[in-house]
Structure to design on (160 residues):
């Protein structure tokens, strides 16, 4: 098992901050220069990771998930659940405004795309088949997420 790299984008990305909440207005040309190609394809072009391959799909450590592009706080581990859909799933965002939404009509489907509320990067989609209390399933791409474990949490259960 190889441990995920946490916060790997921080060193090359001057826009990455876990404290700054101001909206970012950065061109895709600039993001392409800064981001790793796989992250750019998902976050800025709306690609999707192959199911069951993401580092956070079967990941059960207490902590906080952040946008891998800009560092925005997105989800808490307490809202993560085993959906068996192949991608990490959450029943609610970590804070009001941490994500935004837009209609996605690609692939002859009507879905709701989930975007980072700070930088507008593609995170995944939200569906109405999740657990209570919200009934939502935020189906996210692992590559679009960074993770920081709570103090005292063990990372030894990492699958990928």
């Amino acid at each position: 098992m190889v441990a995920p790299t946490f916060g790997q984008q921080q060193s090359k990305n001057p826009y990455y901050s876990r404290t700054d909440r101001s909206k970012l207005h950065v061109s895709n040309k600039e993001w392409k220069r800064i981001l790793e190609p796989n992250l750019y394809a998902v976050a800025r072009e709306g690609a999707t990771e192959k199911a069951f391959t993401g580092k956070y799909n079967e990941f059960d450590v207490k902590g906080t998930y952040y946008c891998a592009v800009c560092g925005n706080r997105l989800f808490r581990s307490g809202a993560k659940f085993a959906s068996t859909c192949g991608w990490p799933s959450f029943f609610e965002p970590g804070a009001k405004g941490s994500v935004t939404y837009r209609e996605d009509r690609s692939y002859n489907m009507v879905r709701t795309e989930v975007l980072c509320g700070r930088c507008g990067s593609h995170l995944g989609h939200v569906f109405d088949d999740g657990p209570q209390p919200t009934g939502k399933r935020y189906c996210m791409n692992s590559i679009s997420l960074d993770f920081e474990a709570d103090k005292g949490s063990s990372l030894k259960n990492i699958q990928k």
Residues 7 and 14 are 13 Å apart (CA to CA).
